[in-house]
TrEMBL record:
Pathway: Metabolic intermediate biosynthesis; chorismate biosynthesis; chorismate from D-erythrose 4-phosphate and phosphoenolpyruvate: step 3/7. It catalyses: 3-dehydroquinate = 3-dehydroshikimate + H2O. GO terms for molecular function: 3-dehydroquinate dehydratase activity. InterPro entries: DHquinase_II, DHquinase_II_CS, DHquinase_II_sf. PROSITE patterns: DEHYDROQUINASE_II. One of its GO terms (biological process) is quinate catabolic process. Its EC number is 4.2.1.10. Substrate binds at N86, H92, D99, I113, S114, R123. It holds the Pfam family DHquinase_II. Catalyzes a trans-dehydration via an enolate intermediate. This is 3-dehydroquinate dehydratase.
């Protein structure tokens, strides 16, 4: 029997990419009655802990600039296992972001802290949802944890 026989798979999985869109840098002070008092740092901490528990690293980024977000998505090709994204206001406006999310060919989970379906009608439509494996909305920041768990189920 060679030394390699029965060798265990030691390759690290590619990290999960967590993306947060515009205004989410102000979590904690922005409309706390809608978004709660947790900050973006709390979101990233929760996401990192959840990913680590499941054996994944996490890359997290937030921007208020749509082109920056699209560039990050392009740069993620072959670098990540999947994407968890809260597209924030771009959810309801951006064909360009939706087009970009198709490019990596990786599974996507869409997260909203608030229950967008129970809010203004303009928040009821998402350009991202048709490209997502699932949407989690209305669970506060715990939605990020649920999204990572579901993403890892999908990655297999
Ligand atoms: C949001 C909901 C969006 O409608 C809004 O524009 C946001 C945050 C959420 O997390 O509930 O910025 O994505």
């Amino acid at each position: 029997m060679s030394d390699d026989a029965g060798a265990r798979e030691t390759t690290e999985p590619l990290p999960i990419l967590l993306l947060n869109g515009p205004n989410l840098n102000t979590l904690g002070t922005r409309q706390p009655e809608v978004y709660g008092s947790d900050t973006l740092a709390d979101v990233v901490d929760l996401a990192e802990r959840t990913a680590a528990e499941l054996g994944f690293g996490l890359r997290a980024a937030q921007t208020n600039h749509e082109g920056q977000m699209i560039d990050w998505i392009h740069e993620s090709v072959r670098q990540i296992s999947g994407i968890v994204i809260n597209p924030a206001g771009w959810t309801h406006t951006s064909v360009a972001l939706a087009d970009a999310l198709v490019i990596p060919g990786a599974p996507i989970m869409e997260v909203h802290i608030s229950n967008v379906a129970a809010r203004e009608p303009f928040r009821h439509h998402s350009y991202v949802s048709p490209h997502a494996s699932g949407v989690i909305a209305g669970y506060g920041i715990r939605g990020y944890e649920f999204a990572i768990r579901r993403l890892v189920d999908i990655i297999g």
